[in-house]
Amino acid sequence: MTLLEIADLRVAFPGPTGPVNAVNGVSLEVEAGRTLAILGESGSGKSVTAQAVMGILDAPPARIDGAVRLRGRELLTLPRKQRDRISGEEIAMVFQDAMAALNPVYTVGHQIMEVLRVRRGMSKADARRRAVELVDRVRIPAAKDRIRDYPHQFSGGMRQRIMIALAISLEPDLLIADEPTTALDVTVQAQVMELLAEIQRDSGMGLMLITHDLGVVAEVADDVAVMYAGRIVERGTVGQIFDGPAHPYTEGLLASMPRVDRRDDVLYAIPGAPPNPAQLPTGCPFHLRCPRATDECRVTLPPLAALPAGRESACHHYEEVLGARR
Amino acid sequence: MPGDDVVLRVENLVKHFPLKGRIPFTSGGVVKAVDGVSFDLRRGETLGVVGESGCGKSTLARMLVGLEQPTSGAVRFGTSIVHQARGRDLRALRRRIQIVLQDPYTSLNPRRTIREILLQPFEIHPEVLDRGRRLDRVRELLELVGLDPHLHLDRYPHQFSGGQRQRIGIARALALQPDVIVCDEPVSALDVSVQAQVVNLLERLQDELGVAYVFIAHDLSVVRHISDRVAVMYLGKLVETGPEASLYDTPRHPYTRALLSAVPVPEPAVRGERQRILLPGDPPSPVDPPSGCRFRTRCWQATETCATTEPPLAAGAHPVACHYPLAA
């Protein structure tokens, strides 16, 4: 059975001039043991999608429609108490800013032990033993001593590891990682991504990775959903997306990224800026920045259509895009 | 005096920040943010400076433009020394060396229109241009950076996107026709789809105006793309400098190689095939850097020599500060 299934998810926030439509009909699946990367830039709705799955959006004021099913069970209509039990035990989340996500006035050991004692009813001694195991699992040296330290006593990379230890403490089926390495230096970023991938392989959990970084996606994802203006514009396996994008936005992103292993003469630059979710353009939300846009694109919103080999694209001209790379 | 084509010469630049001790009026040591950095910047070239957070690259940027007083060492521009210049000389220097900052949201005054922001450099340096010709020049500057003078002149910064704001910051840096622009992480706050616009703009402006850049960034891919030469910084020191192709294709310092191997490549087909060097731990504290070679605590080939003797950055086209440089 599919681990996570999102169907036609819509999230809107009240704004000064009317609703801000952050997520506009997102459908996707995450399978157990696989990594789905949600690729998008700021304002694309990728983080709001994750927050809606995790159940940490306040509604109201947010307005959430659609369906979020974990192993077939609908989450959005569950009573608060049951919902809270699921987020934490079955779904866990790792955030970009560990300093803000951890409580600064408790030791990290206390924070991990508290979760285990409240949720698992462990004794203090058992919880401590397990906390040391978890901190050791995320490769923090001298775990036994370090659990007595406060978050500020750790470096950025180490704090991110602590947050991962906390997230996996209840052995979740699904881990959502929202830009987990964006704030880290590149050498530390590689360590943390490696650790996440390894834990995912060992535990067989599903991983939903929210990121703007094409390089990270290429390194760890199995499947990719590209988001733009609150919609998925393209979906496929990581090989399909990088070898031959089927949407001009993905095509533009790939062409605009300089590479460390070779030098390109001129970068392709996508013109303009991402749209404001409070004032989305008519038709295809990308048409103002798209070199392939036609009259049809300015008027009609392209649906996310099925392509051969199980992939999807929301572009009127996807055949042309696919043909361009061949 | 630097040679003909050298526009900026940095000599053994050092910046130490004193720390307060736990007991009042005592010293708590010093942060050795920049600890002996030397390089030449040639006319019209781009020197990339890469390094991780805390390596001192932003402090270096601030010293280059005279925003920070060095503890020792010198930044030479022509016949003047940036931090010794006073009065008229200093004002002249400030015109020649400009800076573009990382965050376009905080580096523009929110209460001034674009017209006011771009006229300000001429008010500070009135000798550059007659009052009557300044507005025309501001219009030219806006066009140069890809903005519309008719549409954008009287708007406020908050009415622009991040990429547009960075263009305004670049226009401001160009206003007084400098020889050098120090760019401190100019694209890292921008959306991925907008970064390439600003990178291309900086390249075009260099072709048209011949300005030299010191391009400081943590993104090794962007630095490779824009730089002619690259300097790698670790804990306040340069560990390796060289032409872009030579440094990226045949890194000689172990740190450079590890850094490059850690950068993800957007090509799933090569996943697992690239050899990746995972460095243990984090960079040590610049308050108490390791003895000898500063990288030795994370280096896989360190020996006792590395703990006792600091390797110098030798001269040459592609110098490296390592006792055991990697084979090319």
UniProtKB/TrEMBL annotation, chain A:
<keyword id="KW-1003">Cell membrane</keyword>
<protein>
    <submittedName>
        <fullName>ABC transporter ATP-binding protein</fullName>
    </submittedName>
</protein>
<dbReference type="GO" id="GO:0005524">
    <property type="term" value="F:ATP binding"/>
</dbReference>
<dbReference type="GO" id="GO:0005886">
    <property type="term" value="C:plasma membrane"/>
</dbReference>
<dbReference type="InterPro" id="IPR013563">
    <property type="entry name" value="Oligopep_ABC_C"/>
</dbReference>
<feature type="domain" description="ABC transporter">
    <location>
        <begin position="4"/>
        <end position="254"/>
    </location>
</feature>
<dbReference type="InterPro" id="IPR050388">
    <property type="entry name" value="ABC_Ni/Peptide_Import"/>
</dbReference>
<dbReference type="GO" id="GO:0015833">
    <property type="term" value="P:peptide transport"/>
</dbReference>
<keyword id="KW-0472">Membrane</keyword>
<dbReference type="InterPro" id="IPR003593">
    <property type="entry name" value="AAA+_ATPase"/>
</dbReference>
<keyword id="KW-0813">Transport</keyword>
<dbReference type="InterPro" id="IPR027417">
    <property type="entry name" value="P-loop_NTPase"/>
</dbReference>
<keyword id="KW-0547">Nucleotide-binding</keyword>
<dbReference type="Pfam" id="PF08352">
    <property type="entry name" value="oligo_HPY"/>
</dbReference>
<dbReference type="InterPro" id="IPR003439">
    <property type="entry name" value="ABC_transporter-like_ATP-bd"/>
</dbReference>
<dbReference type="Pfam" id="PF00005">
    <property type="entry name" value="ABC_tran"/>
</dbReference>
<keyword id="KW-0067">ATP-binding</keyword>
<dbReference type="InterPro" id="IPR017871">
    <property type="entry name" value="ABC_transporter-like_CS"/>
</dbReference>
<comment type="similarity">
    <text>Belongs to the ABC transporter superfamily.</text>
</comment>
<dbReference type="GO" id="GO:0016887">
    <property type="term" value="F:ATP hydrolysis activity"/>
</dbReference>
UniProtKB/TrEMBL annotation, chain B:
<protein>
    <submittedName>
        <fullName>Dipeptide ABC transporter ATP-binding protein</fullName>
    </submittedName>
</protein>
<dbReference type="Pfam" id="PF08352">
    <property type="entry name" value="oligo_HPY"/>
</dbReference>
<dbReference type="InterPro" id="IPR003593">
    <property type="entry name" value="AAA+_ATPase"/>
</dbReference>
<dbReference type="Pfam" id="PF00005">
    <property type="entry name" value="ABC_tran"/>
</dbReference>
<dbReference type="InterPro" id="IPR050319">
    <property type="entry name" value="ABC_transp_ATP-bind"/>
</dbReference>
<dbReference type="InterPro" id="IPR003439">
    <property type="entry name" value="ABC_transporter-like_ATP-bd"/>
</dbReference>
<dbReference type="InterPro" id="IPR017871">
    <property type="entry name" value="ABC_transporter-like_CS"/>
</dbReference>
<dbReference type="InterPro" id="IPR027417">
    <property type="entry name" value="P-loop_NTPase"/>
</dbReference>
<dbReference type="GO" id="GO:0005524">
    <property type="term" value="F:ATP binding"/>
</dbReference>
<keyword id="KW-0813">Transport</keyword>
<dbReference type="InterPro" id="IPR013563">
    <property type="entry name" value="Oligopep_ABC_C"/>
</dbReference>
<keyword id="KW-0547">Nucleotide-binding</keyword>
<dbReference type="GO" id="GO:0055085">
    <property type="term" value="P:transmembrane transport"/>
</dbReference>
<feature type="domain" description="ABC transporter">
    <location>
        <begin position="8"/>
        <end position="260"/>
    </location>
</feature>
<keyword id="KW-0067">ATP-binding</keyword>
<dbReference type="GO" id="GO:0015833">
    <property type="term" value="P:peptide transport"/>
</dbReference>
<comment type="similarity">
    <text>Belongs to the ABC transporter superfamily.</text>
</comment>
<dbReference type="GO" id="GO:0016887">
    <property type="term" value="F:ATP hydrolysis activity"/>
</dbReference>
